[in-house]
Amino acid sequence: MQKYLVTGGAGFIGSNFVHYLLSKRKDCQVVNLDKLTYAGNLENLADLKMEARYQFVKGDIADEACVDQIFKSGIDVVVNFAAETHVDRSIENPTDFIKTDVYGTYVLLEAARRYGVKKFIQISTDEVYGSIEKGSFRETDPLMPRNPYSASKAGADRLAYSYWATYQLPVVITRASNNFGPYQYPEKFISLSVTNLLEGKTIPIYGDGRNVRDWLYVGDHCAAVDFLVDQGKDGEVYNVAGGNEKENIEIAKEMVCYLKGSQDSIQFVKDRLGHDRRYSLNADKLKVLGWKPKSSFLTALHETLDWYQKNEVWWKKIKSGKFKQYYQKQYELR
Ligand code: NAD
Ligand code: TYD
């Protein structure tokens, strides 16, 4: 029986991963450590209440005593998803990004070193490379993060590597591209856009809408992380790409078309400060190791839109709470 510590397991990718793990690996136990920030939601895991192999701990990855207590119970594998994740929020106030993404990762690495683990997966991001006009980033390219979110993730990414280089902690680092799918907090581009459309509101497109992201279905991301727990080589970085590079405007048009809305619901708004133009990954390293994504972009996007249509109760509750005050302010500022 392998015991996993999944941090940030009540968030978007983390909750998808906890589900993936418990259904795929019958021989595992999962401890989910999550602070339940605005982005953490136990409703994402409501179906696991009776699951004996699953345990939830409300706590902060930057809290040494709490983390120590968990490691004391015996942890084999750590998958660190916990982070502050929204670029726009990091531009407004970077404090929590440094505390969680950098210091929190340090606390986990120290505990993993003290107690010894078989694998420590650090979930980094393609954003650590910065923007690229042409071509695609490889794992060996220099990091050039350009906003406080990506800079804090780059700090954690290299700190994790240093624990391998210095202490031989068995660390594997993943750098995935933009995820989409069920349970994404409705502040990111696709989840905000679909829920806005379903509410009869507009999609706010930053700048000229021609910024490019490479979209990865969250189920594929979970499968890649699970694959790397067994197959990832210690001390190595792996890009995880969806292979679906799209301009934001193209995705907005597709969402409007699928949901039978009016193209007038696409509204161009003020650009994000320092808005990265294009993210692009070369994922050959992971392919050579034996993994590539399975989903077709359009099918996965349509399934995702269906999910938000069917799960209005989930996102309406979020959008009517603190979210409303926060976004009211954002719209007034634009
Ligand atoms: P999310 O914002 O939906 O979830 C983050 C989770 O972490 C929440 O449940 C939150 O409560 C928890 N958390 C925050 N601070 C914490 C702390 N101090 N202690 C414990 N828990 C804390 O984020 P997500 O989109 O699911 O991203 C998960 C990870 O994947 C992040 O590390 C992110 O950088 C990385 N990533 C995300 C994407 C993407 O497109 N969403 C792409 C590549 C990498
Ligand atoms: P986002 O989902 O915030 O992810 P990231 O910035 O981390 O890649 O944004 C994806 C793209 O969509 C990015 O180019 C910014 C753009 N965007 C909008 O045009 N409007 C929005 O309301 C949001 C949230 C993002």
Would you write up a description of this structure?
The chain contains twelve helices and twelve strands. 43% of the residues lie in helices and 18% in strands. The longest helix is centred in the N-terminal third of the chain and has 21 residues, at 95-115. The mean pLDDT is 96. The termini are far apart. The strands form three sheets. It has a seven-stranded parallel β-sheet with strand order 3-2-1-4-5-6-10, with helices on both faces. Strands 7-9-11 form a three-stranded mixed β-sheet. It has helices at residues 12-24, 64-72, 87-92, 95-115, 148-167, 189-198, 218-231, 248-258, 284-289, 297-310, 312-320, 322-333; strands at 2-7, 28-34, 54-58, 77-80, 119-125, 171-176, 178-180, 203-206, 212-217, 237-240, 245-247, 266-269. The protein has a single domain, classed as NAD(P)-binding Rossmann-like Domain (Rossmann fold). Helix 1 (12-24) crosses helix 7 (218-231), helix 2 (64-72) packs parallel to helix 4 and helix 4 (95-115) packs parallel to helix 5. The chain is globular, with a radius of gyration of 19 Å. The chain is of the alpha/beta class. Thymidine-5'-diphosphate (TYD) binds next to helix 6 and strand 8.
